């Protein structure tokens, strides 16, 4: 029994990261129908920013206490990562959009930007990995054979909070409606008096800053940073977002946790060498039964 | 030829994973090579048959991809006209590149590849590392003795042929001992970061120790997560642990664990110590085993060139001479210990078991010889 | 045997009843009109006939073959062609290609023939091309054969769409608001075109249209529906003076 | 006669290339680069069929390459190798059996293509993209779990077949086969998409609903297209395996698929000549930028400012290539050729070939 | 004479390299209803998009000429500012509704830049639902599944929700049933009487000329005739080309 509960907790933590990253994918997708393949790498950049911010705050100049560092690192990381995301939007995606390029060309550009971030990092910082400093005193609670750390709890709550916040923005506010509207018809947006570029920048700010937050939390949970750390988790988070129903905030959230549960579940039940094979077969089966993901609405073509 | 008068350079190619999955391996190897190169060339070159020839090293990136490794090998051979090649490091690249070198009759030494196929039936291909079938039992024997272990668990990387191979060999040799079963045999993917599901299974099986034949970066995460899940027993590792970065990344949680490797950095003596100190000074880090093995591979290559006794201007002749020179090396004293070579060109050398001390140094524990 | 027989056709979308108990029978050779307020379910009826939706209830029989369970392309190969309320041409392929592709169902060769360029392939391609050219000629579109539809004026695009539907050699042609977006003089042209098609091909036409001028001058019989159900039917004069139709659909034209 | 000019030029240059290889005028490396250009052409043109002509977004093309590579490798080792028991066939037959082996690899890959084709009946766009990615992971994972063909250790021994051919007649056999299969691929794709049958694929791309209602059997078209595309990728895989002499499941991971994707979009969606050109360009760029001295030259202004920085060609290459592509997209947001063919851009070319 | 509300002067625009308008000039006075008529492809929609300052590639690029609103040139103004600050709204050809939003959300989104009293906004909601009761019934429906005519209603309703004072309508009657079409024109007339300025494109030239005060006839990117509607209706050329005999 405790074995199962332990694995549920494992899945919750791992799913939280998928969910946090998938939310960023979905947010940008929900506005531009752009699969921002650079998102996983923005997440990586977020982790590195968190690393530098934390080392700087802990370092000789300030010499802050780790907990205060943690509290300060959250907004700083989010802001700086948002800047990276917005920069990408400005210099790479926007010109293409203005030229009316096919959406897949923007997707390929995003893929390329991701590579530039990865290898640029490798060129600038070298191949050796970075160790993220411990910011929170680790507490391990052992409840009837199940161990939980304070960090795990924090991560899970952060994912839920981010989801609630984003879901509110997207479904309840006018800016959220504008975001959804853009994805359907960019042409008519200015005709409603809506500044389209401002909304898009806002989306990138949201998406990237939460990628930064995810990067910080990830670096605290898995404190080893390397330039390619965002690649695989990024791809998988994208998969999670699609299985949930891309473009839908709930889809990304539940899709992330679903993928976490599938991966952990397969390892728990089957020999772990089959993890990818089984996990992806399950995902394929889900998409087979629900061709537009769990929450995705089939785009109705009125003829 | 008549090139004896001119100071002809000897070109050696390096087929390294500078990008891709394991860029740090490429970087470490390159660093060691640069150091060696500086040594030789600042001394005026390599003395062969009473004359000094400068060395030239050409590094090329194989992106950790099989087809790139063969392309790089061909480019080094055909375009750069190197006389010998060092690398690739991991078996995924070394097996195909070894085939290419063998077909094109160019001597190649892989510093780090432990897959038997790399050199099997390939008279032109050599290596500096011992093979997995040797390392597996070393670990099993040591753990049985040291921890009084009856049960073992294994966590390895399925997509990494090295890790998977070693895990299987270990499992076989552990079970052959008849002390007890391998209670958990779990795997993960190359770029995974979360191992808690596998570790939960392992911890639930309550093994006496966990064998983790994984790269050091994953080790750091695995050990940490295992401790978070309440595992208190020891870990055992393999030569892929042997990077000082392990301690930087893993910290105190790795202290007190053991791994088998090619050499022990702490408490090293003689040439090994000199190498370590100089490397540390130049690059600010203790060299990993692949760096040390690259150094030894170059050493072997240099000895082979000296064995040739003469530098031919025609690369084809020179290659044959080097190959014969390599085959002629019956034993070699390197910084990773001394080795003898068998008919396949594989070294027979001692493995070292190293303990990660309470100050985070790799302390020599025991040497196991075949 | 009648060409088209629809019996008790009902279509629901969730709680919404878009078509209810719609029935019609066409013997062949008619030119029938379907009118009704916006959202009355006209396009839905066309979608049901062409197999794009499967009806919730009711049957559709084409030339004696029930269409239940058939895919749209199978229904089309029974001899039903249609145009769309919003033009749906393949905008990046030439007009000629648009008309060639619509003959897919009677291409007559397999994918292997296309690789090997067999005799059969060449003959079939020749036939397809001939039919396409004849049709373009007949509908005075020959000059535009190599143009991309997106570069053509709206009126011509409508014409190309009708030509594409005709290349199917349909027995039944469904026209969904063919005059929408056309200016007055183009509307005249359209009326002539539809009449010409009706007179020169052995064809039955069923059309939806909001411009009463088009409906009254073309259709021999008109069905009026509202909320998915038939509220009136008859000749143009009958309809125009029917108070229910005036109330639900025609309104008064004082501005 | 004039309309055969192109074919003659093509045949002549291929023969010239083979002759040069035979008499050692171009070395093994250059030959290898040519061969990889050929393989990349097969990969990019076949993916272009799905991503360009049909307008889907398949991100897992390497999976089919993987299937083809493994199937033909295993067959090849069975027939001529000694790893799995003695050779079944005499070495002299290698020349005739080899193309068959490659075709069988392609055929099995085409069958694997059905895994993607079936879901494509119900879903499309980014959902289908995920299915292709999932299939890529699944196939790699499946092979990793098959110890009999090496699992993650990889599989080798295919060179024996190549040697068997060389023993029969000493020549650049692999180069010959790559040339033949590349030409075959382009030829068959060209024939397919220029037929009325194949144009149905473009119709699906531009308006699937109209296609379905205008009598195109969209399900069958998708099945045929996916199978053709993945079958050709399987052929590329078989050739790849025999050139490298070693296959490893991780050689066909998502990165490999990404390369194929980049080539398609670089060339221009739906443009066959674009896909060929971009494969040549991309492979060339990858090889040229291997050179450390070139990279040092390019970066000399930067290293002048930061003398401590030692750029390594391997790393910088992977910054430069994406950068070049990003810039290219800014200037030509529709790829090199857009959706046009070379003969649309230079209509005079039409006189010189009848490739159809 | 006071300055007209909208003045377009010698406007040249291009799509890519193709010039679509060759120097168009016209004016619309405060409170006027003006109509543009012309054949398919004459450049009517192009003109409206240029006035709304929409960006390429869908809309044309302005090469030369001037567009003034209340005497001020609005060239280079952001299209969303045109709506928010000038209360000048375009109902584009082809509806362009946000299909993934519900009918209600579509209407709500149109009030994005509106800085008015809540009561005003509520009054407008009422008016729209009154004019198009269908929309009220379909409030919660995703708008892409609306019928063609219903979508057209939504597009017009949306413009009314934006609190505009100047509305440009591009073929608003396309796909509408006669009853609704007449209703809509009557409402527009009412709005006009309350002070709304209207610039209308309409394929049905009869209707347009009956409805508007003044008209301009466009042919291949140039104005070929203009004047009060009554005069235009008598113009034999116009009669022949656009009134169908
Ligand atoms: N797929 C669908 N899902 C939900 N509702 C739908 C769907 N298709 C149509 N409807 C609804 O069914 C009704 C009938 O639609 P239909 O398109 O048939 O109308 P129509 O008679 O063609 O109207 P118009 O003249 O405006 O084109 C409409 O109210 C529409 O909102
Ligand atoms: N996006 C575009 N790209 C290129 N050319 C265009 C574009 N939109 C319109 N055109 C061209 O500009 C000219 C004017 O088109 P416009 O849409 O303004 O005509 P219109 O008078 O509104 O016609 P309609 O009655 O069909 O709506 C036409 O020749 C058309 O082909
Ligand atoms: Mg309709
Ligand atoms: Mg228009």
UniProtKB/TrEMBL annotation, chain A:
Family designation: Belongs to the binding-protein-dependent transport system permease family. LivHM subfamily.
InterPro entries tied to this protein: ABC_transp_permease, BCAA_transport_permease
The protein, known as: Inner-membrane translocator
Entry superkingdom: Bacteria
Keyword Phosphoprotein (UniProt): no
Coiled coil residues, start to end: none
A molecular function GO annotation: L-phenylalanine transmembrane transporter activity
Coarse class of the protein's main subcellular location: membrane
Listed GO biological process terms: D-alanine transmembrane transport; L-alanine transport; L-isoleucine import across plasma membrane
Natural source organism: Pseudodesulfovibrio aespoeensis (strain ATCC 700646 / DSM 10631 / Aspo-2)
Topology of the protein relative to the lipid bilayer: Multi-pass membrane protein
CC annotations in GO: plasma membrane
Keyword terms of this UniProt record: Amino-acid transport, Cell inner membrane, Cell membrane, Membrane, Transmembrane, Transmembrane helix, Transport
Cross-referenced PANTHER family: BRANCHED-CHAIN AMINO ACID TRANSPORT SYSTEM PERMEASE PROTEIN LIVH, HIGH-AFFINITY BRANCHED-CHAIN AMINO ACID TRANSPORT SYSTEM PERMEASE PROTEIN LIVH
Transmembrane residue ranges: 17-35, 42-62, 68-92, 104-127, 147-170, 191-222, 228-246, 253-271, 277-298
UniProtKB/TrEMBL annotation, chain C:
Any GO BP: L-alanine transport
Claim: Protease is one of the keywords in the record: no
Matches recorded under SMART domains: AAA
The keyword NAD belongs to this UniProt entry's keyword annotation: no
UniProt keyword annotations, A-Z: ATP-binding, Nucleotide-binding, Transport
GO cellular component: plasma membrane
InterPro entries to which the protein is assigned, alphabetical: AAA+_ATPase, ABC_AA/LPS_Transport, ABC_transporter-like_ATP-bd, BCA_ABC_TP_C, P-loop_NTPase
A Pfam match: ABC_tran
Residue intervals of the ABC transporter domain: 4-252
Gene3D superfamilies listed in its UniProt record: P-loop containing nucleotide triphosphate hydrolases
One example GO MF annotation: L-isoleucine transmembrane transporter activity
Identification of the protein by name: ABC transporter related protein
Automatic annotation (TrEMBL), chain D:
Localization (cell): Cell membrane
GO CC entries: plasma membrane
GO MF term list: branched-chain amino acid transmembrane transporter activity
Keyword tags: Cell membrane, Membrane, Transmembrane, Transmembrane helix
Membrane protein topology class: Multi-pass membrane protein
InterPro entries per record: ABC_transp_permease (IPR001851), LivM-like (IPR043428)
Membrane-spanning intervals of the chain: 31-50, 62-84, 96-118, 125-143, 171-189, 223-244, 264-286
Protein name as catalogued: Inner-membrane translocator
Species this chain originates from: Pseudodesulfovibrio aespoeensis (strain ATCC 700646 / DSM 10631 / Aspo-2)
TrEMBL record, chain E:
Gene Ontology terms, MF aspect: ATP binding; ATP hydrolysis activity; branched-chain amino acid transmembrane transporter activity
Membrane spanning stretches: none
Keywords: Amino-acid transport, ATP-binding, Nucleotide-binding, Transport
Any Pfam family matching the protein: ABC_tran
An annotated GO BP: L-amino acid transport
InterPro entries cross-referenced by the UniProt entry: AAA+_ATPase (IPR003593), ABC_transporter-like_ATP-bd (IPR003439), ABC_transporter-like_CS (IPR017871), BCAA_Transport_ATP-bd_LivF (IPR052156), P-loop_NTPase (IPR027417)
SMART domains on file: AAA
ABC transporter domain sequence ranges: 6-245
Family: Belongs to the ABC transporter superfamily.
Descriptive protein name: ABC transporter related protein
Organism: Pseudodesulfovibrio aespoeensis (strain ATCC 700646 / DSM 10631 / Aspo-2) (Desulfovibrio aespoeensis)
């Amino acid at each position: 029994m405790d074995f199962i509960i332990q694995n549920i907790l494992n899945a919750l933590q791992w799913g939280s990261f998928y969910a946090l990253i998938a939310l960023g994918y979905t947010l940008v997708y929900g506005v531009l129908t752009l699969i921002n393949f650079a998102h996983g790498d923005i997440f990586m950049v977020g982790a590195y920013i968190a690393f530098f911010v934390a080392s700087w705050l802990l370092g000789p100049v300030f010499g802050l206490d780790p907990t205060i560092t943690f509290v300060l690192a959250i907004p700083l990381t989010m802001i700086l990562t948002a800047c990276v995301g917005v920069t990408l939007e400005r210099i790479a995606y926007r010109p293409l959009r203005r030229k009316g390029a096919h959406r897949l060309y923007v997707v390929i550009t995003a893929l390329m930007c991701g590579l530039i971030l990865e290898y640029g990092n490798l060129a600038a910082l070298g191949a050796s990995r970075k160790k993220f400093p411990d910011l929170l005193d680790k507490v391990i609670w052992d409840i009837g054979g199940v161990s939980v750390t304070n960090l795990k709890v924090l991560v899970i709550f952060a994912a839920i909070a981010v989801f609630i916040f984003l879901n509110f923005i997207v479904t309840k506010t006018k800016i959220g409606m504008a975001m959804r509207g853009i994805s359907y018809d960019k042409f008519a947006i200015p005709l409603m008096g809506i500044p389209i570029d401002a909304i898009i920048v806002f989306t990138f700010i949201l998406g990237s800053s939460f990628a930064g937050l995810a990067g910080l939390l990830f670096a605290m949970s898995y404190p080893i940073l390397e330039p390619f750390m965002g690649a695989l988790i990024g791809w998988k988070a994208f998969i999670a977002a699609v299985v949930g129903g891309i473009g839908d905030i709930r889809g990304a959230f539940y899709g992330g946790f679903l993928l976490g549960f599938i991966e952990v579940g397969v390892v728990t039940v089957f020999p772990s060498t089959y993890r990818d094979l089984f996990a992806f077969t399950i995902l394929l089966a889900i998409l087979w039964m629900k061709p537009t993901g769990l929450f995705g609405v089939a785009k109705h073509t009125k003829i | 030829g008549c090139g004896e008068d001119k100071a002809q350079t000897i070109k050696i190619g390096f087929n390294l994973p500078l990008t891709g999955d394991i860029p740090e391996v490429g970087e470490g190897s390159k660093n060691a090579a640069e150091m060696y190169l500086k040594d030789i060339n600042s001394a005026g070159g390599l003395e062969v048959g009473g004359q000094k020839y400068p060395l030239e090293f050409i590094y090329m990136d194989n992106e950790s991809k099989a087809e790139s490794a063969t392309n790089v090998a061909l480019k080094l051979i055909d375009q750069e006209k190197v006389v010998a090649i060092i690398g690739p490091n991991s078996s995924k690249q070394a097996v195909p590149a070894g085939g290419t070198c063998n077909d094109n009759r160019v001597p190649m030494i892989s510093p780090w590849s432990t897959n038997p196929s790399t050199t099997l039936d390939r008279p032109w291909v050599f290596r500096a590392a011992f093979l997995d079938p040797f390392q597996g039992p070393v670990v099993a024997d040591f753990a049985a003795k040291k921890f009084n272990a009856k049960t073992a668990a294994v966590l390895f990387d399925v997509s990494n042929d090295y890790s998977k191979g070693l895990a299987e060999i270990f499992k076989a040799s552990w079970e052959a001992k008849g002390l007890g079963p391998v209670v958990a045999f779990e795997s993960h993917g190359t770029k995974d970061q979360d191992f808690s599901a596998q570790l939960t299974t392992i911890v639930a099986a309550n093994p006496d120790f966990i064998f983790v034949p994984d790269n050091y970066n994953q080790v750091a995460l695995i050990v940490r997560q295992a401790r978070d899940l309440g595992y208190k027993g020891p870990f055992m590792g393999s030569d892929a642990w042997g990077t000082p970065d392990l301690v930087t990344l893993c910290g105190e949680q790795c202290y007190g664990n053991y791994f088998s490797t090619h050499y022990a950095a702490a408490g090293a003596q003689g040439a090994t110590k000199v190498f370590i100190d100089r490397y540390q000074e130049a690059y600010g880090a203790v060299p990993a085993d692949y760096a040390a093995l690259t150094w030894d591979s170059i050493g072997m290559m240099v000895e082979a060139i000296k064995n040739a006794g003469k530098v031919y201007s025609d690369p084809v002749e020179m290659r044959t001479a080097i190959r014969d020179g390599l085959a002629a090396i019956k034993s070699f004293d390197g910084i990773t210990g001394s080795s003898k070579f068998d008919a396949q060109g594989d070294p027979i050398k001692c493995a070292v078991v190293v303990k990660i001390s309470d100050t985070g140094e790799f302390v020599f524990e025991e040497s196991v010889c075949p | 045997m009648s060409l088209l027989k629809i019996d008790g056709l009902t279509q629901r979308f969730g709680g919404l009843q878009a078509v209810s108990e719609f029935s019609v029978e066409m013997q062949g050779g008619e030119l029938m009109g379907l009118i009704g307020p916006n959202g009355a379910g006209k396009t839905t009826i066309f979608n049901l006939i062409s197999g794009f939706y499967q009806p919730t209830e009711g049957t559709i029989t084409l030339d004696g073959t029930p269409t239940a369970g058939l895919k749209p392309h199978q229904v089309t190969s029974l001899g039903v062609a249609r145009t769309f309320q919003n033009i749906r041409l393949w905008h990046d392929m030439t007009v000629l290609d648009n008309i060639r592709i619509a003959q897919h169902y009677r291409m007559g060769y397999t994918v292997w023939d296309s690789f090997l360029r067999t005799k059969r392939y060449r003959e079939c391609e020749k036939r397809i091309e001939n039919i396409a050219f004849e049709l373009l000629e007949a509908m005075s579109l020959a000059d535009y054969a190599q143009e991309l539809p997106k570069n053509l004026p709206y009126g011509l695009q409508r014409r190309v769409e009708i030509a594409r539907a005709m290349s199917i050699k349909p027995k039944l042609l469904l026209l969904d608001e063919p005059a929408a977006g056309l200016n007055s003089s183009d509307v005249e042209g359209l009326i002539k075109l539809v009449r010409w098609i009706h007179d020169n091909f052995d064809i039955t036409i069923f059309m939806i249209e909001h411009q009463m001028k088009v409906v009254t001058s073309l259709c021999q019989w008109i069905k009026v529906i509202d909320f998915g159900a038939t509220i009136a039917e008859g000749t143009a004069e009958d309809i125009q003076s029917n108070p229910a139709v005036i109330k639900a659909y025609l309104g008064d034209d004082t501005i | 006669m004039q309309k055969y000019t192109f074919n003659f030029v093509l045949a002549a240059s291929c023969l010239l290339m083979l002759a040069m290889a035979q008499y050692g005028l171009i070395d093994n490396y250059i030959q290898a680069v040519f061969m990889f250009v050929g393989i990349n052409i097969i990969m990019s043109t076949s993916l272009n069929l799905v991503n360009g002509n049909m307008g889907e977004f398949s991100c897992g093309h390497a999976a089919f390459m993987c299937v083809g590579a493994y199937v033909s490798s295993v067959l090849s080792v069975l027939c001529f190798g000694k790893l799995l028991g003695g050779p079944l066939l005499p070495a002299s037959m290698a020349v005739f059996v080899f193309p068959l082996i490659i075709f069988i690899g392609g055929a099995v890959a085409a069958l694997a293509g059905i895994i993607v084709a079936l879901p494509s009946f119900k879903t499309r766009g980014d959902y289908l993209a995920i299915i292709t990615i999932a299939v890529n992971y699944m196939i790699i994972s499946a092979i990793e779990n098959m110890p009999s063909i090496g699992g993650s250790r990889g599989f080798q021994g295919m060179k024996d077949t190549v040697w068997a051919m060389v023993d029969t007649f000493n020549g650049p056999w692999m180069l010959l086969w790559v040339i033949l299969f590349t030409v075959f691929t382009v030829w068959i794709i060209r024939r397919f998409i220029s037929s009325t049958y194949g144009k149905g694929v473009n119709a699906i791309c531009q308006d699937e609903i109209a296609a379905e209602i205008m009598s195109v059997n969209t399900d069958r078209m998708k099945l045929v297209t996916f199978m053709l595309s993945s079958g050709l990728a399987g052929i590329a895989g078989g050739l790849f395996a025999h050139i490298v002499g070693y296959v490893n499941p991780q050689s066909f991971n998502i990165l490999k698929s990404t390369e194929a994707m980049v080539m398609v979009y670089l060339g221009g969606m739906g443009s066959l000549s674009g896909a060929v050109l971009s494969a040549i360009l991309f492979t060339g760029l990858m090889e040229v930028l291997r050179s450390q001295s070139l990279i040092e030259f390019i970066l000399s202004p930067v290293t002048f400012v930061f003398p401590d920085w030692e750029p390594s060609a391997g790393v910088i290459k992977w910054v430069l290539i994406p950068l070049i592509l990003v810039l290219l997209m800014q200037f030509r947001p529709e790829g090199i050729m857009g959706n046009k063919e070379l003969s649309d851009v230079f209509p005079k070319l039409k006189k010189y070939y009848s490739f159809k | 004479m006071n300055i007209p509300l909208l003045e377009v002067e010698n406007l040249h625009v291009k799509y890519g390299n193709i010039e679509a308008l060759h120097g168009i000039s016209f004016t619309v006075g405060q409170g006027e209803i003006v109509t543009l008529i012309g054949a398919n492809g004459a450049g009517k929609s192009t003109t409206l998009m240029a006035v709304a300052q929409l960006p390429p590639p869908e809309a044309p690029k302005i090469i030369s000429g001037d567009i003034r609103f209340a005497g001020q040139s609005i060239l280079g103004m952001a299209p969303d500012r045109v709506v928010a600050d000038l209360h000048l709204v375009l109902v584009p050809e082809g509806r362009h509704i946000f299909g993934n939003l519900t009918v209600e959300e579509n209407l709500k989104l149109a009030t994005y830049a509106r800085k008015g009293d809540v009561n005003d906004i509520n009054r407008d909601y009422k008016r729209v639902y009154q004019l198009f009761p269908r929309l009220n019934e379909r409030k919660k429906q995703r708008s892409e599944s609306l019928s063609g005519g219903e979508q057209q209603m939504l597009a017009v309703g949306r413009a009314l929700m934006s609190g505009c004072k100047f509305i440009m309508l591009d073929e608003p009657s396309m796909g509408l049933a006669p009853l609704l079409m007449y209703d809509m024109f009557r409402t527009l007339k009412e709005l006009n009487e309350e002070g709304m300025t209207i610039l209308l494109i309409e394929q049905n030239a009869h209707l347009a000329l009956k409805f508007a005060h003044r008209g301009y006839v466009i042919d291949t990117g140039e104005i070929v005739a203009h004047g009060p509607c009554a005069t235009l209706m008598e113009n034999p050329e116009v009669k022949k080309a656009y009134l169908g005999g």
